[in-house]
Amino acid sequence: MKSEMKRRDFLKLGxxxxxxxxxxxxxxxxxxxxxxxxxxxxxxxxxxxxxAVEAMGKKLEAATSGRISIQMFPSAQLGGEKExxxxxxxxxxxxxxxxxxxxxxxxxxxxxxxxxxxxxDSSHMEKVIDSAIGDELLAKITGNEKTGLIGxxxxxxxxxxxxxxxxxxxxxxxxxxxxxxxxxNPLFVDTMNALGGNGIAMGFDQVYNAMQTGVVxxxxxxxxxxxxxxxxxxxxxxxxxxxxxxxxxLVFSKKSWDGLSKDDQAxxxxxxxxxxxxxxxxxxxxxxxxLAKIKAAGIEIVKFADKKPFQDAVKPVWDKYGAKYxxxxxxxxxxx
Length: 336
Ligand code: BDP
Fold this sequence. Notes:
Layout: H1 2-22, E1 35-40, H2 48-63, E2 68-73, H3 81-90, E3 95-99, H4 100-103, H5 122-130, H6 132-143, E4 149-155, E5 160-164, H7 172-175, E6 179-182, H8 186-194, E7 198-201, H9 207-213, E8 218-221, H10 223-228, H11 231-234, E9 237-244, E10 248-253, H12 254-257, H13 262-296, E11 301-302, H14 308-313, H15 315-321, H16 326-334
Parallel strand pairs: 1-2, 1-3, 6-7, 9-11
Antiparallel strand pairs: 3-10, 4-10, 5-8, 5-9
Helix pairs in contact: 2-13, 8-15
The protein binds beta-D-glucopyranuronic acid (BDP).
């Protein structure tokens, strides 16, 4: 009995030791030593999500007199979002700022936010992530041992619109036969196929080249990404389909989390919550700037008075995935 307990204690210590080491600290006793937390994003410096996480780093530094800081790796320097999630799961990366689209394959519950047309518009999405529903889904990520992730906060990413190099998409018919890059999540490939296009799952970092060389005809994303990634240079036709309104998410490595003191965990949690609201202002500004650049580039955005044909077209996606989220979808719709 006694030796069994000892063994368990040893295992516990061993696990804690490993987590602390992954934070760059020598031993649990050195928990007060300097910790540089790695953060990663596919977007460049200055993009709203990157700036918001950097601002969190400044706050952490100020609150801990420089003991904890964040080192940002922007522009997919540490790989794509799937890779970022995997690195966070093993403790090689602490903060992964990714799209909820990339988290869906890991935590099925969050796929409800990835359903086409689940939100009326992006302000509806904002209200939902700010509501108890947002908190519950973050808790689903944190509470599930298997994810290896802590859900810290949501961020804005506007609405996603289809763009391509071939022709203006003014109706569903125009999408027929076009190869459109989607985030790697079966739900999105099915969504594009239901809309009549040919959905191709591909890493974000490959999209520009794939469009330029004709491997795909187009992609879909929000206005700031269309500009920040220079997609507008190779895919000049953009239509405001708003078929997906996917929030961003900031997750933390569970393995590294276990190596933080309770006080430090509380600080990261608090600044994460603040980042959810603070990123929003940066986001609105980025959207305005992107729209101005789209206009300056002479690109005309196709708008739709009625999106019902698009909403009707994705019914097969709802038939396939929707049932398990029915109760949650009802609550989302009830958020006014
Ligand atoms: C952008 C998101 C980013 C995704 C990207 C994508 O900010 O997190 O990786 O879309 O399409 O809007 O992969």
